[in-house]
Design a protein that fits this description.
It is a single chain. This protein is mainly alpha-helical. It has one domain. The termini are far apart.
């Protein structure tokens, strides 16, 4: 059995328990939305619920993944 790597159990959390990992996964979800209006609406909702900094961070990750996929 492997040890739990959540922040409560491990001094150094595993990568799937970090804010960066969450942002990467959420960006993939945003990119999977049907169109640009839906993606912007999602980002607007993030700004409303979590603030403009969270939106900017997520939007930057979305753009990073979008550009990486276009290469």
């Amino acid at each position: 059995m492997t040890a739990c790597l959540c922040p409560s159990c491990a001094a150094i959390p595993g990568p799937t328990y970090t804010a960066d990992w969450m942002r990467e996964c959420e960006a993939q979800r945003v990119l999977g939305l049907p169109g640009k209006p839906e993606r912007h609406a999602y980002l607007d909702l993030v700004a409303k619920r979590r603030g403009p900094t969270a939106r900017a961070q997520l939007e930057a990750e979305v753009v990073r993944q979008w550009n990486q996929g276009r290469k």
